[in-house]
Amino acid sequence: LCLKVQLKPMIMTESIDYIAHRMSSVGGKLNTFTEDALQLIANATKGVPRKINGLCFRSMLAAVNKEEKIIGANVVREVHASELP
């Protein structure tokens, strides 16, 4: 028996809702990210959950290293740019 499951990418609002859910499940708040940062994450990851998780995590680490409490689009942009080939 072989079962194949394929998730379709999420649209912008679904991606932001997904981030909100993930943040609340660990006791965090969505307002940790600015609105511009959330939109950039959704666009950069094309709504793929695995990519959203990774970019959010790496952006949070970068913000901690910069001693920033709010993650803005500038942090997300820097992290995403550093991952491009």
Give the distance, in angstroms, between the N- and C-terminal Cα atoms.
38 Å
Broad structural category: mainly alpha
Evaluate the radius of gyration.
13 Å
Would you tell me the overall average pLDDT?
94
Which term fits the overall shape? globular
| Main beta sheet strand tally, sense and closure | none
**Helical residue percent band:** 55-70%
The overall strand count is 0
Helical stretch count?
A: 4
Return residue spans where pLDDT drops below 50 for at least 5 consecutive residues: none
Beta percentage is under 5%
What is the H-and-E element order?
HHHH
What can you tell me about this protein's structure?
With 85 residues, the protein is mostly helical. It is 62% helix and 0% strand. The chain contains 4 helices and no strands. It has helices spanning 12-25, 35-45, 49-65, 73-83. Helix 1 crosses helix 2, helix 2 packs across helix 3 and helix 2 (35-45) runs parallel beside helix 4 (73-83). It is globular. It starts with 11 loop residues before the first helix and ends with a helix. The mean pLDDT is 94.
Any key phrases for this structure?
globular; single chain; 85 residues; 4 helices; mainly alpha
Helix/strand layout:
Layout: H1 12-25, H2 35-45, H3 49-65, H4 73-83
Short structural summary:
The protein is mainly α.
